[in-house]
Specification:
By secondary structure, the chain is α/β, with parallel strands linked by helices. The chain contains three helices and six strands.
Length: 100
């Protein structure tokens, strides 16, 4: 997993590329800590370059949702396609996040 966090004015963009799996779980606390520092009104999670996600990888989004919900931050998932979009759909993530 590779990721970048960018301040985009009134919103933050988290871009995730590669594979988001159990093997990357140790990096999740760092990602969450960095997101907590930027606290904006909107968080866009860009997944166009994410090629695979497993259930452990999806747990990162649950943690992001919990933090964002507590802070009143809107979270939008962008660019999810193929098997990544299908996995998020099977997990009913559209009930938690807006998809674009």
């Amino acid at each position: 997993m590779q990721y970048t966090i960018r301040d985009q004015g009134g919103r933050t963009e988290l871009s995730i590329a590669g594979r988001l799996t159990f093997a990357e779980a140790a990096a999740f606390p760092k990602v969450l800590a960095e997101l907590d520092k930027v606290g904006k009104e909107r968080l866009d999670i860009q997944l166009r370059d994410l090629t695979f996600i497993d259930s452990t990888g999806m747990s990162l989004f649950v943690h992001v949702y919990d933090s964002a919900n507590a802070a009143g931050t809107e979270v939008v998932i962008k660019g999810a396609a193929g098997s990544v979009r299908a996995a998020l759909g099977r997990a009913a993530f559209e009930t938690l996040f807006k998809f674009e």
